[in-house]
Design a protein that fits this description.
The chain is α+β, with helices and mostly antiparallel strands. The chain has twelve helices and 17 strands.
Length: 446
């Protein structure tokens, strides 16, 4: 062989050896498995493409259109007119996102208020139009005008540092009747408008306004379906790659990777092994998965702002689950099924909660079901209304909730199963994960 080629071949072999040696050391340095190496190397030297089959599930999903935002604004304006109210005011967050595409991520909250203000304008005797205004710090006006607010003519009300922002807003708008503030608005915003509108009632959102966001459109439900399906598919994919002896932190990293590959933003998982799962929202201890342990994953992410929430309690093929723990798992699944059958349009929230609780009471384990059955879900992971004891909220078409019974025996075992559902146009409850099989079938088949 040519001496020059021999020298090149020699150095290539040494470089290859050194790269493999570095890769072998990564688990010791970072406390992770070779499964994560390609992620740690930023994909520069991919050993494989884990979870790549998840990437296409929500690929075709599209965000809410400008037309749907316009419809929301019009419904809000009509509702305000019906309530004899002059304005709805919201800080960046779920409601501002819903009506104006201004999320808390798009504009971070600070002591200087930026506010979405929607007022009804009477065009003629029968037609109401939504006027959209943004109250913005004057020095931030250029940035505020860059927000992608879906409205043809947004009015920007700029307040200089030396002025009272609430007085500036009131002087620029006609607010003669009630003004409603989003229920999540901070207290100093509420107080500021109360002082600036001393002769006008300032109140948290009326139930009629809250219901606009609580009851989802078909488009919203499709986004929620895809987000929750992708989350469940990620759990199933990670479940297949788990091993006895791995740590909670390792499984959690695998879940985060899977959710990201699935196209979800801000994905993450509460990951609890064995008795750690007996604390429903425990932080874990980086426990090692033992031969007889369940693993609990409570996972979520977001798709175009819409949130998923899925929980599975799983076992591995080689796990030797104690018979009592298997029985507990079966009881939790049955409680979830009972609640799903009771949940329908016209049902009372507390009755749905009671149905799952009553079943678990019959098993003798009801005392270990220590939290409410469910929460609303949409642009927020937890939102009104809630399925809990004492709630007289009536379930309606378009509502979306979690259904998540659990049994928690501290020091021994914790089991929770969670699937979110919606109320369809026929008034029936349908799991958002129904399209990929819905409820878990067993600890080995999530």
């Amino acid at each position: 062989m040519n001496p020059l080629l021999e020298l090149i071949d020699y150095h290539l072999q040494r470089i290859t050896f050194l790269l493999l040696a570095c890769i072998a050391w990564i688990p010791l340095i970072f406390g992770t498995s070779l499964f994560h190496v390609s992620g740690l190397l930023g994909g520069a030297f991919p050993l494989s493409k884990p979870f790549s089959d998840l990437a296409n599930h929500c690929k075709s999903s599209q965000p809410i259109t400008a037309e749907e935002f316009h419809e929301r604004q019009q419904r809000l304006a009509s509702t305000l007119h019906h309530l004899n109210a002059s304005a709805f005011i919201a800080e960046p967050g779920a409601s501002a996102h819903y009506f104006g595409n201004i999320s808390a991520t798009a504009w971070k909250l600070s002591e200087r208020p930026l506010l979405l203000i929607i007022t009804p304008v009477l065009v003629n005797d029968t037609q109401i139009e939504a006027k959209v205004s943004i109250l913005t710090p004057q020095f931030e006006a250029t940035r505020a005008k860059m927000l992608p607010i879906p409205h043809d003519s947004v009015e920007y009300i700029e307040w200089p540092e030396e002025r009272n922002p609430y007085e500036v807003a009131v002087s620029a708008l006609t607010i003669e009747d009630k003004a409603y503030l989003d229920e999540s608005a901070r207290l100093f915003i509420f107080n500021g408008f109360q002082k600036a509108l001393s002769n006008v009632s300032v109140a948290p959102s009326a139930p009629e306004i809250q219901e606009l966001r609580q009851r989802k459109s078909d488009t919203e439900i499709e986004l929620l379906k895809c987000a929750n399906e992708a989350t469940l598919l990620a759990i199933r994919a990670v479940h297949k790659k788990m091993t006895i002896g791995m740590k909670e932190s390792e499984a959690s990293r695998m879940m985060s990777m899977a959710l990201k590959v699935a196209g979800l933003d801000n994905g993450g998982c509460l990951t609890l092994f064995g008795e750690n799962a007996a604390l429903p929202h425990g932080s874990g201890s980086d426990r090692v998965l033992g031969q007889s342990d369940f693993a609990l994953f409570d996972c979520g992410g977001s798709l175009h702002g819409y949130v998923s929430d899925v929980t599975r309690t799983v076992a591995l093929p080689k796990t030797k689950v104690p018979s009592e723990h298997q029985a507990i798992w079966g009881d939790v699944l049955s409680a979830q099924t009972v609640a799903a059958r009771v949940a329908k349009a016209g049902a009372i929230a507390q009755d749905i909660d009671a149905s799952a609780r009553s079943f678990l009471n019959l098993t003798g384990r009801g005392a270990y079901f220590t939290h409410r059955l469910g929460h609303g879900i949409g642009l927020e992971g937890h939102e009104e209304p809630y399925i809990r004891g004492g709630s007289l909220d009536v379930i309606k078409i378009g509502h979306t909730f979690s259904n998540e019974p659990g049994i928690y025996i501290e020091g021994k075992v914790g089991v929770r199963l969670e699937d979110c559902f919606y109320i369809d146009s026929d008034g029936q409850s349908i799991f958002l994960t129904e399209g990929i099989g819905g409820q878990a079938l067993s600890p080995w088949d999530p």
